[in-house]
Amino acid sequence: MKTKMKQINPLQIDETIMEEAGRLIAEGELVAFPTETVYGLGGDALRPEAAQKIYQAKGRPSDNPLIVHIADFSDMDRVAREIPAAAQKLADAFWPGPLTMIVWKKDTVPSATTGGMDTVAVRMPNHPVALDLIRKSGCLIAAPSANTSGRPSPTEAAHVAEDLNGKIAMILDGGPVGIGIESTIIDLTESKPMVLRPGYITPQMLSNVLGEEVIMDPGIIAADDTRKPKAPGMKYKHYAPKADMVIVDGEQEAVVSEINRLSQEKQSKGQKVAVIATDETRSHYRADVILSMGRRADEDAIAQHLYHVLRECDELNVDAIYSESFRTPRIGQAIMNRLLKAAGHTVIHAGE
User: Fold this and answer.
1) Distance separating alpha carbons of residues 327 and 182, to the nearest angstrom
2) Which tens digit of pLDDT belongs to each residue from 323-334?
3) Integer Cα distance of 22 and 177 in angstroms
4) Burial of 225 from C-beta contacts in 10 A (0-12 / 13-18 / 19+)
């Protein structure tokens, strides 16, 4: 299959291109498109064969549910058996935006889309190209991230092409994305609202809107804690670069010293080493490649750069990667969640 790459200006959308992209979705083909979080790989959410194409293109396990993207809140009626009051409140506060809600599904949503589950994950993206594609297609669009399963998520169209060229019908190149990490996922089917994936919208923000405590999935807490034993099943790699990656945790001085020691060890064996640091610390490291995620105080920039930096390590053919940990106050948990998965939860505690 030849994959068409189409440049699209989000501020001045080309109707002809979007009509073609919408037609491809309606015909059961796959189109990659930008959202405010990462690029998505879209197919008709109500056609099981489209979901199967998505799994095949990504090399993704078919029991891993897809998120259904909608353009209007009224579209929830097409997929949800019932719409909880909490969903309306959260939609009013955060949609369109980087929040995915899990609700009980209608029978019209094929089990291929939901990974065999009785629930469906739904979000309304905050990106003009994504919303226009949904409307032009006349479909609801199932869309995971537009990358090979396990690889760093794509934050620009070139990343999509690198992974999926020749496997999908079209890539809509709308430029770099804004947020850079996937949406927060909240489960509204339990007695208490529960975050299943941390993201830009934090549990505290959700609690403030709902007027009740929003809890974090205990599996995430266990897996993302760098000190406690990892929860079963949470050790798999995801968002991962090709080289082995290790996170070094601790006080800054101890982290710098430990990363430099480990880097020297690898270099003495002829290996090429990359260090993931910040603007404040990059000059302290001695490695073949030093990549900054930005200023530590600018959490949004760190999130934006995360996947780009991981892919850059692949382009530079490094043999080993050492990364600082990121305990920033607002979305530090979401950033660390992705880094830990990229490192397969391999953490060294410096200074101990």
Assistant:
1) 18
2) 999 988 899 999
3) 21
4) middle
